[in-house]
Amino acid sequence: MSKYPKPPFDTPSIEPPGLTREMIPKPDHGEASYKGSGRLKGLCAVITGGDSGIGRAVAIAYAREGADVLVSYLDEHEDAKATAKLVEDAGQKAELIAGDLQNASHCREVIEKAVSSFGRVDILVNNAAHQASFKELADISDEEWDLTFKVNVHAMFYLCKAAVPHMKEGSSIINTASINSDAPNPTLLAYATTKGAIHNFTGGLAQMLAPQGIRVNTVAPGPVWTPLIPATLPKEAVDKFGEQVPLKRPAQPAELASAYVMLAEPLSSFVSGATIAVTGGKPFL
Fold this sequence. Notes:
Helix content is about 35%, strand content about 15%. By secondary structure, it is α/β, with parallel strands linked by helices.
């Protein structure tokens, strides 16, 4: 039997982008459970959206596997500082940079700070995302559509373009797609469309960067219990969140971390252009 809670939940709505302390039940990022074994020793990682949710779980895992971590985030300073402390408690260097990734100049600043702090970029995790729920096409404003693409797709391009000149053979780019790239939720039309784009971008970039020995992969999560959920979905959807997959619950962020570690570690040197689906039993085609 799983140690993690199953819906129905009674979770209050929170203001986007949401803070971890506002969530009920509290998510598990692996704070007490993830044990490292040096799989990323001596490496340096950039994680966008690393303040909470999947990003925080990946930051914890990477640090406990021996990597220094730069956390990029929007403006959730409290969550970002908590993530940085967890990285430092693991004996690794933590850097924070706040700002809006929809701006190309800020994406370049993120990579510049990583290079200034670490001297290079070994791992880039493009994890930050924007989503909003709409029942009707007419309800999606032009501005909302543009924002979703700027944060989810354009930023990924800007970050990769800035990072690759500072990556050596064996480096790794890991993008966060979604089960929505295979089975789009109509109420998340803009978000689901960007996740399909991320999936295709990953496959194309993996081929483009193969001569340089840089690997590009993606993780496609199913429902995951992060602040984005109560901050962006209607309460009735939040209360039943995760029921739609065979395991009948959402993943906790900690349950995603091992996929990101596997894709980043040097032993995965032949894994590129791949999608790791973490969906609670729902097939990903």
